[in-house]
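Q: Given only this backbone (273 positions), what sequence would you predict?
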């Protein structure tokens, strides 16, 4: 008994190899190819990459990228408000309940590829993403400052600062996997065969994407091993025990000197007029 041929490989190959085309186009081609092949898991993977991963979804390792933690703060000084002061912090300096939720110096990239392409297009050297609950953490850090006597300090936001090449590396990883998938399908096809069959699609998905169980079986997507793109690391620290809470980076002495510097700058401007 022969397996019916699967249409669409040639269109997928063209879309994958065209670096000027959106990766979303290639993934839609892959989605259609998986549909023709009745390969449920390949469809699921392509759809998640297109639409994004939900909060309950386990992320592939290549979608966990190194990121710096930053806060923005305002100083409400007498007669003057200094806004938008940005400072980098360590994950050890987050509130305890933020660390308990696994927020650290690794950012989960859950957005779909089209949204990631748009973020790259409008960003300079960094892409800034807000962790879940960031407004709550900013409020708690502001209260901590007020408890320390720094009533003029307001923490306005907490975010991840992700290097733009790290986000580009996520997209490049997906495109490379798709290219490898096409190559594996081509390698499985004997000379003269025009279109692949479902078995060849299933074998290629296992080889290139570590996806098993085609033909409508239960989803069992296994994320490929992460590789460090552009010198980055794909390690996540969410399972490490929370260290002892250090002295806050915005302790009283730092804030006082910042306030003095701001007041001095204002005085200099007034004196030169």
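A: Predicted residues:
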């Amino acid at each position: 008994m022969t397996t019916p041929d699967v249409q669409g490989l040639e269109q997928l190959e063209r879309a994958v190899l065209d670096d000027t085309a959106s990766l979303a186009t290639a993934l839609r081609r892959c989605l259609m190819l998986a549909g023709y092949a009745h390969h449920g898991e390949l469809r699921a993977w392509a759809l998640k990459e297109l639409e994004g991963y939900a909060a309950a979804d386990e992320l592939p390792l290549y979608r966990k990228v190194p990121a710096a933690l930053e806060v923005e703060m305002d100083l409400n000084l007498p007669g003057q408000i200094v806004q938008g002061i940005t400072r980098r912090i360590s994950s050890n300096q987050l509130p305890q309940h933020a660390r308990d939720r696994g927020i650290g110096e690794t950012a989960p990239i859950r957005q779909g590829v089209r949204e990631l392409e748009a973020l790259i297009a409008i960003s300079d050297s960094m892409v800034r993403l807000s962790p879940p609950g960031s407004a709550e953490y900013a409020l708690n850090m502001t209260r901590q400052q007020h408890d320390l006597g720094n009533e003029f300090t307001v923490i306005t936001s907490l975010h991840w600062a992700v290097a733009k090449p790290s986000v580009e590396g996520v997209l490049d990883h997906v495109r490379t996997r798709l290219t490898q998938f096409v190559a594996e399908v081509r390698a499985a096809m004997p000379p003269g065969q025009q279109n692949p069959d479902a078995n060849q699609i299933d074998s290629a998905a296992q080889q290139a994407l570590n996806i098993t169980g085609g033909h409508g079986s239960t989803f069992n997507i296994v994320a490929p091993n992460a590789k460090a793109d552009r010198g980055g690391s794909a390690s996540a620290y969410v399972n490490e025990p929370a260290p002892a809470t250090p002295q806050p980076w915005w302790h009283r002495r730092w804030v006082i000197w910042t306030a003095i510097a701001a007041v001095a700058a204002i005085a200099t401007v007034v004196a030169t007029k």
